[in-house]
Here is the input.
Amino acid sequence: MHVPKNAGTAISQELYGCSMRHESIRYYQKHAPDVVRTMPSFALWRDPVERFLSSYDFIRNGGGSHVSLHPGFAERYADLTTLDRMIEYVEGATSIYQLDHVLRPQHWYLTDRHGDVAVKMLFDLKDIDRIYPFVPGLPAGKIKKINTTQRFTTDLRPLQKEKIMDLYKEDYKIRNSIAQIGTLSEKSRSPQKISVKRSTVPAFSPALTSSL
Here is the structure.
């Protein structure tokens, strides 16, 4: 299993591998409903502030170690040379499709059209190396990470942090659905089903009202 750059992407387990494209759970519900219904699905949640800083560095670097930023977004983001400009750009976005995947809210990928978390299991990214007992076909051991980003932005001003947290406030709400690995029984190594809590997150506006 390789970890995608964008934590939060809906993931459906397929035999001994994983299908990890940047698609929302609604995409799979519409185009592959049998897969959603019969196969375990899981996703990784990442702290939105840390994710935003990593995404900013990813964009300013033109991509990561394995994947380049899409040329269309690279051109669109060319003038966003400061963290403040990036924050202002996301604040002013009128469509989810004006944002590259690394800037889209995580809940947009993980909730159905009613705003409920629709993946069967949700884990915190920091627990990635401990989720194998709960994901069928995932072997034990450290998960190999690909498409790493050269980091240079680690500090931010309190006001910047406040703005980022507000932009992704709905992502913090779905945190209540994260499985607490430390409290789950690991006596058996056989896969377990973890039920996520019903979310109170409203549908993302305006994009979620009419798009996948």
User: Anything to note?
Assistant: Confidence is low (pLDDT under 50) at residues 1-5, 10-20, 186-192, 204-212. The chain is about 30% helix and 10% strand. The longest strand covers residues 41-45. The CA atoms of residues 133 and 202 lie 32 Å apart.
